[in-house]
Each structure stands twice: as structure tokens, then as C-alpha cells.
Amino acid sequence: SSHEYKLNFKKSxxxxxxxxxxxxxxxxxxxxxxxxxxxxxxxxxxxxREYLSPSEVIWRIGTEILCHHSHSSMKEFNSFTEQMKSLxxxxxxxxxxxxxxxxxxxxxxxxxxxxxxxxxxxxxxxQTVIQDKEMKLIKAYRGLLDYYNWSKQKNIxxxxxxxGFEDLSVEQEMHSCFRKAAVNxxxxxKIPGVWDLFVKCxxxxxEFYGDHNExxxxxxxxxYNSKFPTNPNAHVYLYQFLKRHGESKKSLVSALKxxxxxxxSHELMIDFNIMLQKSKxxxxxxxxxxxxxxxxxxxxxxxxxxxxxxxARQLKQIVISEKHLDWIKQEWNSRKDWWPAFHFSRYSxxxxxxxxxxxxxxxxxxxxxxLGKDCKYFKYVSHQGCKAQVKRFRILKKFVNxxxxxxxxxSG
Length: 412
Known about the structure:
Blueprint: H1 2-25, H2 29-46, H3 56-68, H4 74-87, H5 92-105, H6 109-120, H7 126-130, H8 132-160, H9 168-188, H10 196-208, H11 212-224, H12 232-244, H13 249-262, H14 269-277, H15 282-295, H16 305-321, H17 325-333, H18 339-343, H19 346-355, H20 357-371, H21 376-387, H22 391-402, H23 404-411
Helix pairs in contact: 1-2, 2-3, 3-4, 4-5, 5-6, 5-8, 6-8, 8-9, 9-10, 10-11, 11-12, 12-13, 13-14, 14-15, 14-16, 15-16, 16-20, 17-23, 19-20, 19-21, 20-21, 20-22, 20-23, 21-22
Pfam family, one: TAF1_subA
Protein name: TAF1A polymerase
GO cellular component, one term: RNA polymerase I transcription regulator complex
């Protein structure tokens, strides 16, 4: 019966999709392609009974298979994509974008640009309005490729500039690419979202032509506009721009402070700590200690010599002056239950000593100040250093022994 046929068709279709999924997960691309062929044939046979539009599933699965199948070619991929474009008007621009990405991954820049240009001229009644977001992305990526072409022309001029190279056609092409890129890049970064690459390219264009005020405004908007999602890179780009243009330390600190609040383990926190340590303001030096302690809370920094050196230097300064020991105590109180096992075990001491003498020295100093002269890490490293007759380890041992009362005050 018709009802039974529909139930069987639905069951077999779902089973076929399950087989395709299993084959893809096991990277059996040939097998997945065969099942997809059966799936598409079953849909075609059913057209006579009831119209079924080509599913987005076919497009996505087919694309994935063609990207990984050992016998697929760019010609086949292009052919498949064109079919998906003609059959799927409701997702025409999405297919165009994916086609562009595939062309770019294969280094076919000119073909990708042509594909974007054709997509930009596409019109299909109400569907054009419905796919407005996709159209904006199409224009944005075309702007990105215009920036790429501008960059190539710029490099040609810069390389030959000293030799008296003069080619008006190259310069005109460069300015033409600049205008086209600037218009499309400027439009996309007005929309709340994460547009890192587009922002970087647009700022590069503005800086090259000396429009620093506009570049600063773009970066400030990208970093501080509350409508945009939280994005650490936005603050990194602003900081790098300010640093390039010799802005005040106050501006640099402000940019990095927000980055610290968002990503306390960011690599720029070392620069931030060094900058704060050099400050004459007590508030900033206090923040510097907080920053470097926070960095070392993360496993990725456990064996970073520079980070431990920053902490060791600041702790040493505080201990010698015996001022602001409460800063150390405040930071240590929330860490004393887990840092000893995390950083200062005997196993870590052995490994650090074998692999990096400088690291073991800086960590031993920190361990000695925070945990005292009986700390396992400090005892092992100082013993090995003295045994090897390395002068700085003898100095380290004397320093920690001399200031051991500080440990008692810090530990509470």
C-alpha cells in the first residue's frame, strides 16, 4: 500500500544515512560515496510519487566525501557544486561560499575571486533578501581577495622602489584594489561579530595610507563596543597598534588590563608584567604580581623560564625590602593548597633539573620563598646545584636560608 511504501522508504532512507555516517566516521570515503549514490537514487525514484527537494544533507555529505575521497578531482568537485547551486536556490549563496573556500584551499585564487564576483551578481526574487547575511559575507570575502591583490601590488612597488621602478599600471591597480577592498571590509566589520582577519586587513590598508585616526577608531570599536562578542584578539590588535605608534603607557596598560581579565594566560601577560614591574606606581606593581601569579596557574606555563623569572624577580624585590609582604600573602592564600603539588613536587624538581637548569633555579627561588627552606623542590634543586658547584645555587641557598622568616609570615 501507499502508506506501507512511505514507511519503508523513510526507514530505508534513515538506515542509509546511518551507514553513510558510520563510513565517514571511519574515513571509508569510497564506501560513503557508494551509499550516498544509493541515497540520491532512492530520492530520484520517489520524485514521481511526491516531490522532495534535494536535501542539505546531500550537499554537506557530498562535499565532505569529495574533499577526502582519494579519486576525487577539482573538476568533479566543481561539477557537484554547480549542481547543488542549481538545485538549492534557498542555500545558493552558502554553497557559493563553500565552493570559494575549497578553491582557496587549493590555491586557486583567481577562480575563487571569479566565483565570488558571479555570486555577488546573483538575484532570485525574495531569496535575495532572505540571504542578505550570506551576500554580505560574499562581498566581505571578495574584499579580502582584493586586499590580497593589493598586498601583492604593494610588495612589487616596495621591492623595486629603490631601483627607480616606475610603473603607473601597477600603482593604479594597487589603488583600485585598495578602494574595492576598503569598501567591502568596512561594511562587514560594522556588523557585530568576530571579524579578526577582516579587521586586520582593513587596519593594514588604513595604516599604509596614513589614516591612523580611522584605524584607531576601528580597533576601539571592535574592542569596546558592547554589541560585539567578547574577543581577546580585539584587545591584542588594539594593543599592538598602540605600541606601533608609540602611545602612552597608560593606554597600553589599559588595553592589556582588559586582555588580562578576559584571558589571564595570554602570552602578552609577560610583557604586561614587565611593564607593570617597571612602574613607580604601587598599584601597578601590585597588579603585576597578580598577573604573573595568574599566568602560572595554567599548565601551559609550568615550564616557561621567562614567567618564573618574572615571578622570582618580583618576589625577591619584595622580600629584600620587606615591604608589601601582604601582596604575596594574598596571592599565596588561594594557591597554597594546590600549587605545591602542581609546581613543586620532588618529581618536578628532578625533571626540571635534568632538562633546564635555568628553570629549576627560578622555580627553586620561588618555592623557597613561598614554602620555606624545607620545601622538597627547593631542597632537591639547591642540593644538586651546590653539588655541581654552580655558584648561583649557593647564593640561592643562602638567600632562602637568610629570609626563611619571611616564609613564616607569608604562610600565616
